[in-house]
Amino acid sequence: LLMLGIETSCDDTAAAVVRGDGEILSQVVSSQEDLLVKWGGVSPKMAEEAHALAIDQVVQKALDDANVSESDLSAVAVTVGPGLSLCLRVGVHKARQIAKAFRLPIVGVHHMEAHALVSRLVNKDLDFPFLALLISGGHNLLVLAHGLGQYVQLGTTIDDAIGEAYDKSARWLGLDMRKGGGPALEQLALEGDPNAVEFRVPMRQHKDCNFSYAGLKTQVRLAIESRNIPADEIPISSATEEDRQLRANIAASFQRVAVLHLEERCQRAVEWALKMDSSIKYFVVSGGVASNQYVRTSLNHIAEKNDLQLVCPPPRLCTDNGVMIAWTGLEHFIAGRFDDPPAVDEPDDMQYDLRPRWPLGEEYSEGRSVAR
Ligand code: ATP
Ligand code: FE
Q1: More confident position, 252 or 45
Q2: In the β-sheet with 2-7, what is the strand arrangement from edge to edge?
Q3: Distance of CA 242 to the CA centre of its chain
Q4: Phi and psi angles of residue 144, each rounded to the nearest 5 degrees, phi first
Q5: Ligand 2 centre and the CA of 54: distance in Å?
């Protein structure tokens, strides 16, 4: 079995070829970091254009690096949601073009399920059911994974995701955003005192598994302003030593509280999950923010404390990538869940069935699950 995976849901154009046994034959990512740095974010239209410019080359390179051609593939997997429709459309269009020309089945993949399931490529012993924390730029999910496509959502964010808080804080601190705000802030935090600034831990009064990062973000902004740190005008590279230390202290204090919030909600989720299914042995942590070393270490403590084994994919499989799409495609394909190749006369400008908003499983709250 050979699966091509294509991912264009957000701001990275990615493709990969993965073999049925989980061997990664190629992995290509083209990111829009220049746009991010220049504009401070990506508008859907700009992102769509960047994907459209990159997609052919990225897919071709994934095939070339794997030393295969389209006709060697068993099927094509592509992210169909959640994400920006304009962006998703670019990937789906490419996938269908290939599938149409080479008569290949198509597997539509849920981006967040892919973040979770890539852990099964990494650890072949990892069976369902397991608990997963998925932390990225747009999502902050705690789910109980019962099986392929079967998830119960224990918690989500009521406002921002942790990755968004990292990104904004990094920007406000005047960090170099070229490698992404998260990694830059993690780096600077190493120089700071994590107890220097007293940020409030969010949502302590809510005894559930939901998250909130908007308030912490505001606290960071206020901490910068109240110390008169000139981060808006002076990048960290030109800051005086004293200024740099102040910024590092804010970064370290932010990170401590941001991750403490994760730990507290995860501890409760473990308790909920074990009550629902005492056979759970694994705790999966994935998504872009899971590439953070401090996050990994902290959540490993939670796992150990509860006799669970932490599975955290290597950093390049935590951030958006084509491997997780190809792998999740393989899992569904093997289970018989895929679509037939597109009709030979399918028009190029067809309206595809995209799922920009696609919840990962039903919601659960204190003993009752609520179907949407
Ligand atoms: P989503 O998966 O919700 O659609 P996304 O696809 O944009 O969002 P990912 O690539 O999964 O996001 O994750 C990107 C996020 O991870 C960004 O917010 C980025 O700052 C964050 N991130 C990446 N590396 C680190 C790190 N070392 N520390 C903290 N955050 C990080
Ligand atoms: Fe993602």
Answers
A1: 252
A2: 24-31, 12-19, 2-7, 75-81, 106-110
A3: 35
A4: -100, 120
A5: 18
The strands making up 150-155's β-sheet, listed across from edge to edge, are 309-311, 282-286, 130-135, 140-147, 150-155, 362-365, 368-370
Question: Taking CA 104 as the corner, what is the angle to CA 99 and CA 110, rounded to the nearest 5 degrees?
Answer: 75
Tokens 């009709």 belong to which residue? 343
Q: Which residues line ligand 1 (CB under 6 A)?
A: 9-10, 83, 111, 136-139, 163, 166-167, 180-183, 186, 287-289, 291-292, 319-320
Residue 163 Cα to ligand 1 midpoint, Å, equals 5
- For the segment 269-291, the average pLDDT, to the nearest whole number, is 97
For 256, the token pair is 């401590």
Pocket test for ligand 1, best of 9, 84, 319, 324 (most atoms within 8 A of CB): 319
SS3 at position 14:
strand
Report the SS3 class of residue 325.
helix
Q: Are strands 140-147 and 130-135 parallel, antiparallel or unpaired?
A: antiparallel
Task: Give me the pLDDT at residue 370, please.
Answer: 45
Helix, strand, or coil here: 77? strand
Best substitution site from 80, 119, 140, 289 to test ligand 1's pocket, by max atoms within 8 Å of Cβ? 289
234: left (phi over 0), alpha (psi -120 to 50) or beta: beta
Closest ligand, as measured to the CA of 166: 1
Q: Could you tell me the distance, in angstroms and rounded to a whole number, from the CA of residue 1 to the centre of ligand 1?
A: 30
How deeply is 241 buried, as exposed, middle or buried, from its count of CB atoms within 10 A (0-12, 13-18, 19+)?
A: exposed
Give the model's pLDDT for residue 350: 86
pLDDT tens for 89-119 read: 999 999 999 999 999 999 999 999 999 999 9
Nearest ligand for residue 184 CA: 1
How many Cβ atoms are within 10 Å of 81's Cβ, its own excluded?
21
Residues 120-176 have pLDDT tens digits of 999 999 999 999 999 999 999 999 999 999 999 999 999 999 999 999 999 999 999
Location of structure tokens 């005492």? 278
